[in-house]
Amino acid sequence: MNLKAEALKLHKRHKGKIEIISKIDIKGQKELSLVYTPGVAEVSREVYRCPSSIYDYTSKGNIVGVVTDGSAVLGLGNIGAEAALPVMEGKCALFKQLANIDAFPICIKSQEPGDIINIVKNIAPGFGGINLEDIASPKCFEVEKALQDIGIPVMHDDQHGTAVVVLAALMNALKVVDKKLNEIKVVISGVGAAGIAIARQLLCLGFDQNYCVPVREIILCDSNGIIHRGRTDLNTQKLELSKITNFANIKGILADALVEADVFIGVSKAGVLKRKDVSRMNPKSIIFAMANPMPEIDPKDALKVAAVFGTGRSDLPNQINNSLAFPGIFKGALMTRAKTISPAMKIAAIKALARCVRVPTKDKILPSTLDKQVVINIAAAVKKAALSGK
Amino acid sequence: MNLKAEALKLHKRHKGKIEIISKIDIKGQKELSLVYTPGVAEVSREVYRCPSSIYDYTSKGNIVGVVTDGSAVLGLGNIGAEAALPVMEGKCALFKQLANIDAFPICIKSQEPGDIINIVKNIAPGFGGINLEDIASPKCFEVEKALQDIGIPVMHDDQHGTAVVVLAALMNALKVVDKKLNEIKVVISGVGAAGIAIARQLLCLGFDQNYCVPVREIILCDSNGIIHRGRTDLNTQKLELSKITNFANIKGILADALVEADVFIGVSKAGVLKRKDVSRMNPKSIIFAMANPMPEIDPKDALKVAAVFGTGRSDLPNQINNSLAFPGIFKGALMTRAKTISPAMKIAAIKALARCVRVPTKDKILPSTLDKQVVINIAAAVKKAALSGK
To answer: Is the pLDDT of residue A213 over 80?
Structure first.
């Protein structure tokens, strides 16, 4: 049976992936009188008297809302709230399986940033954190920014989850090829949510320089070519990045950007990276081709030319996947009742994830998604960073 | 240990009452590739291609959102979204325990009807039904009405759940005292969400007359006394009812209304019904005093004078509690993917609930909340009514 048939069959058999159960067995009138009226009124009274006790007496502290408007789902694009639900349920299932976090999908019909912001603000009381997911760029930036002061951590995973995993992968890949972050030139193909977040992370934007080393040079390429200071078609985020990347202000296409590059990071689409263009890169090149399901370069070609090669696929070595990051990041944030996911918490997550592989090799720069130690290590590091107040 | 201490301890030990689990065990890469990327993309594609398949491939069809703004919680009043969460979680736990329905609490910060309506409309894609809960009167009417065409059933339980249980209790109590619905005079104390819904149900408003027999006379009393056609302080709902109740247009207080009444229905507050006033009622009087936690009349007094006496309490005979109705009503609606809870579905629920007690007696007019047969019977009846298209 092929993947499609198998996935449909499995989903149909279980009617989706998530179930909500009662933590307390309501065996008789006694339990009923405690979990519901009249006993529950005393609990509500206590939360009213002391608002922070909501974390003691309700499930809030371990519940993450996985919020989308379905405007940029996986490689499928704008398929809307309903069709996004299977992906969001999958994410919720992973939250539970990997981090024992209770996650619930909220699929929003409106695709207006104002509506999304208003809804998340208003439903926040029942959640300990919000994972924004598959919201199109550039509105994802506006939505996330407006939700940073609502009292619970809100993180757009397509940005920060991806950036954390890519940076950890890059740190370990650099060990394999014996290069340093501040010496390398990085080319990023794809300047959506992920590309922008990776670039910002590589530039240490918003980060304490003591905790972060910026790379020597970054060139960003979108579907119109290299981002440079002469482009008139750039949105706010690209415009901002055009001023602090591409120092020589070169123009042209991806192939031009790749001259003497050390690292290619692809968060764009299948086939944009040609084998002959890779030959323009410096020796010991690192290629992360993460377009789904087909990478930016044919794996057979890449494996011949790259010193380290990673993709988003589980059937190749070096799978670079968000699910290595978001469970541990949220776990650490929830453990400390953090109000935001701070830059220091993200740096801590990157380093902890990189450390999960003691001796990185060409074929193993990251641990397996299902390795339970990953969440434990990231959560502990994120917790420490959160408690240090950074 | 007293009730308060015990309820707080139980809630603290479990950190609330609900947990979200994965229905599919993600044991290895194989399952991961089916429940998440790349397999889940095929499922999303299928839902996009055929929108109704969302019921086959996701959990939507069995998920009910328990939505509140915390403006009228139990007997506690307007305690807000956070303090309402323990009650909503309790309701979700009951949904699971009684009907195997997955229910999730949505506590909304804004108490503006427009916001509540907009939010419910927008988050509807992930839910099979919406249970509105503890939203203050009269805005609850506006909110519920505006949500009747969103494609999934939306029911304000404080109105219709209560009306269904009270009507079933009344049908069986009338058998005990050998009176008929169309012969009786009913006095309702309390004209909020529950009082208005009970009155409308007793008058068969919105109901097919073949399925419903209206009572002879209803007098409604709020905190300013009897509702009559001379009152200038009535909201829209009370004004509407003033035209079709209290035919003689009598004025005065509750004691005046009770003259020759057969039934007293209290959804108001402790102590409003005096023993001496009950003596004004017809022989074989029925008293449902449902104020929580203390009923409208001292149970010791009521038991001496009433032929049938019911309350909201679990420590007295004849507990009249919503939890007898909402699990079965939603179960039946979800089973048929009904788009609304129609009047015929509510009538079916009333009759099915009444039939759960074969031979009603003074001390047993309703089944126990934890009797599993109740949900089965109500769901079957509601399903039948839904499928008949009424």
So the answer is: no
